[in-house]
Amino acid sequence: MVNLVEIQKPILHWLVKGAGLREQLIEIEPGTFMNFWAPKDVVQSKPNTVNPTSPDAKRKKSKKPKPPLVLIHGFASEGIITWQFQFGVLLTNYAVYIPDLLFFGKSTTPSLDRSPDFQASCIARGLRKLGVEQCDAVGFSYGGMVAFKLAEAYPDLVRSLVISGSVITMTDSINETSLKRLGATSSAELLMPETVPRLKDLLSISMHKKLWFPDRLYKDFLESMFKNRKERKELLEGLVISNMDAKIPVFQQKILLLWGEKDQIFDIDLAKKMKEQLGDNCYIQGISNAGHLLHLERPCAYNRAVQRFLAYVNSTEDTGSINV
């Protein structure tokens, strides 16, 4: 029987390619490959790949390059699925890069390192091979934790951050409090459902609006999206650190915490606390009538907020204030 989720992927890929992005599987280190959707005119950094005196190279140099923007997905699905309502709008003003994190999409590694630090390192090295010297980054949920690590470890690479539905670090206390509130015994039980009722529960707490889908679609989603279960469970285990080891980094970047006001997984009060911890370079904006999946529930409001913040960051006139 045809999987209803899988048959949509070729259509989405066709739309993405029509918008000017291409898949590039990049070897980060021996055996470790990370898949990126990147601008079609980007060539992986290799000697003699592009002749700088060629007409194509001259044309590229004559155009003002768009600032690179990296979109880092969450735990439920790969990059292009997560950002399907964002890439088309953002491509107007930005050179969009969408990585698939390790064990999502075509990205894989033989390494046993399951930390968000390793994911961030692979993104940074992949971007360097794609010729990206500086970028803005948008991270959602699990991808937000990776984005924080990316900004902390590579301040020269990351200029600004937009974070939604995430935390700086998943500590014991944050993890236990969230699981208790949501009635789950582990992150894997919550985020890696194995049955249709469990998937329905996850969708129910992830979205403010209650949507109906036929069970057939839920079954196909389980089959299509929740692969590499062993490795993904290890990724979740690799997130949690003890309260004693947790430290708040001093970020050089401007940060926007863009939150669904009805987020049940990481509520907006947690975002407000993070804003206090991160200081004056951090801003917060809530989106009404949206839960954890705010970029899917309120894509227009989400996209406007991201673009407004990035326009401020990219502005040559830093007024020292922001109206988001």
From TrEMBL:
Gene3D superfamilies reported for this sequence: alpha/beta hydrolase
Segments of this protein annotated with the region Disordered: 45-66
Compositionally biased region (Polar residues): 45-54
Domain annotation AB hydrolase-1: ranges: 67-299
Any one Pfam family match given in the protein's UniProt record, by short name: Abhydrolase_1
GO MF entries: catalytic activity
Name this polypeptide is given: Alpha/beta-Hydrolases superfamily protein
Organism: Rhynchospora pubera
